[in-house]
Design a protein that fits this description.
Layout: H1 3-28, H2 35-42, H3 46-52, H4 56-77, H5 86-97, H6 103-117, H7 121-141, H8 147-169, H9 173-179
Helix pairs in contact: 1-2, 1-4, 2-3, 4-7, 5-8, 6-7, 7-8
Length: 180
């Protein structure tokens, strides 16, 4: 087999594995993401899983990147095509983010945040990267009078969504409803 064909086959298989692992982590959570259950979910051995990824951190990074990409895709498909003022986008996102279909994504995000809060440097770094990615996404969705206002509004949007997510996770949906 030629090298280019082998690389393509390897990359294709790796992409398939990432999709399977993403489905598994969304269903089971990060606490179920030890090497053997991940390998089983991917339909391979733990040794072969490490052939495609350098270590468990690389696996989790790839899965979290895929989860983020899927979430952004699902949200982008259902948000306005043109930038919106902060309050309009906030209301629209709050309705989307708290739907049952998106809750697995939110649950994973809360697990990342909890591990970061416990001092796990890996999850803090990953969480910061994902959080900044959503901050940048918010900037592209917002309509503001100036670049400075756009920065402030994007920060407000992120803080508002994160606060609402936390409140939903502890059963304070009624407080979220009042805030909308």
């Amino acid at each position: 087999m030629r090298y280019a064909a082998l690389v393509t086959k390897t990359n294709t298989r790796r992409a398939e594995i990432i999709q399977r692992l993403t489905d598994y982590v969304l269903a089971e959570g990060l606490s179920a993401a030890s090497l053997r259950p991940l390998a089983k979910a991917a339909g391979t051995s733990d040794r072969m899983l490490l052939y495609y990824f350098t270590d468990k951190a690389a696996i989790i990074t790839a899965v979290l990147e895929q989860i983020s990409a899927r979430l952004v895709g699902r949200i982008s498909d259902r948000t306005a095509p043109d930038p919106l003022p902060l309050e309009d986008l906030r209301r629209q996102l709050a309705q989307l983010l708290f739907e049952d279909a998106l809750w697995p994504y939110m649950r994973i995000w809360l697990q990342v945040a909890a591990r970061a809060a416990m001092g796990d440097a890996y999850y803090r770094g990953v969480g910061e990267q994902i959080g900044r990615g959503f901050l940048d996404w918010g900037k592209m969705q917002l309509k503001a009078d100036s670049a400075a206002q756009l920065e402030v509004d994007a920060a407000r949007l992120l803080v508002s969504m994160e606060g609402m997510l936390f409140l939903k996770s502890i059963g304070l949906d009624d407080v979220n409803a009042k805030a909308l």
